[in-house]
From TrEMBL:
Keywords: Hydrolase, Membrane, Protease, Transmembrane, Transmembrane helix. It comes from the Bacteria. It is found in: Membrane. Residues 54-183 form the Peptidase S54 rhomboid domain. This is Rhomboid family intramembrane serine protease. SUPFAM superfamilies: Rhomboid-like (SSF144091). It is a multi-pass membrane protein. Pfam families: Rhomboid. Its main location: membrane. The chain crosses the membrane at residues 12-30, 67-85, 92-108, 114-132, 139-158, 164-183. GO terms for biological process: proteolysis. GO terms for molecular function: peptidase activity.
């Protein structure tokens, strides 16, 4: 396993989610200011012209509340994706948009499907399942945090709310699972610090002052003298090391 270098914060952790959020808000601003309605650029299932929505639908929203509800989770989840899965973040983003969009085009109702919800479900699903698949404790912890924050979204992959594209949510959930399974990601072996390395008490200068009975031996009494008292200490590695020191009579012994 390759050496683990740690999760590092850099500008991309904020830049990628910020660019996405600014883009979807700019599109909504453009519609509002110029009186345009870009809903027809969303996904329309099983219609050839509706395929353009695979690319455009994540950036189009029907209302301010729709836009706001997608802004915060998109920013948080994209930031987590870049920070914890830096090397595959762009691949997950692009493939998540394309695959979830195509699935929605296949299974969706005959209506326009718009919004970044499908992408959000991709990110939730990918982060959760990838953490479980890698079995790395930090990524598993991230998976649990995602479940705690967004676990309630699971209900919306079913047709329980009128006017909501549950097909897009379901497509995002399935896409995230598939990407988590097929995209290889190796967090590497965690770096071990010196204090974490296995060691014996014989490696510690202070502990070497104690004999096998636990008696403290002052430095003045520890000498490399062949005629001095010889004591043998067995380590956990089955290595026997002899220490020579002069043993003085102790009052009361």
């Amino acid at each position: 396993m390759k050496e683990y270098t740690g999760f590092k914060f850099d500008v991309n952790v904020l830049l990628m989610p910020l660019l996405f959020v600014l883009t979807i808000w700019f599109v909504y601003w453009f519609e509002f200011v110029f009186g345009e309605d870009l809903t027809s650029y969303g996904i329309y299932p099983r219609r050839i012209s509706g395929l353009r929505g695979v690319l455009f639908s994540p950036f189009i929203h029907a209302s301010t509340s729709h836009l706001y509800n997608n802004t915060v989770p998109a920013f948080v989840l994209l930031g987590a994706l870049v920070f914890f899965y830096r090397k595959v973040a762009l691949k997950v983003f692009v493939m998540g948009v394309l695959i979830s969009g195509l699935l929605t085009w296949f299974i969706g109702r005959s209506s326009y499907h718009i919004g970044a919800s499908s992408l959000i479900y991709v990110l939730v699903s990918f982060i959760f399942f990838k953490g479980i698949f890698t079995r790395y404790y930090r990524l598993i912890a991230l998976s649990l945090i995602v479940v705690f924050m967004y676990g309630g979204m699971l209900w919306y992959v079913f047709p329980i709310k009128q006017g909501m594209s549950w097909e897009g949510h379901l497509s995002g959930l399935l896409t995230g699972f598939l990407l988590a399974y097929f995209i290889k990601y190796n967090p590497g072996k965690p770096k071990r610090y010196k204090w974490e390395e296995p060691s014996s008490e014989l490696d510690d200068p202070f502990l070497r002052h104690f004999d096998k009975e636990g008696n403290f031996i002052p430095s003045s009494e520890m000498e490399d003298d062949p005629e001095a008292y010889d004591d043998t200490i067995s380590t956990g590695k089955n290595i026997q090391i002899n220490y020579h020191y002069k043993k003085k009579d102790t009052p009361g012994d």
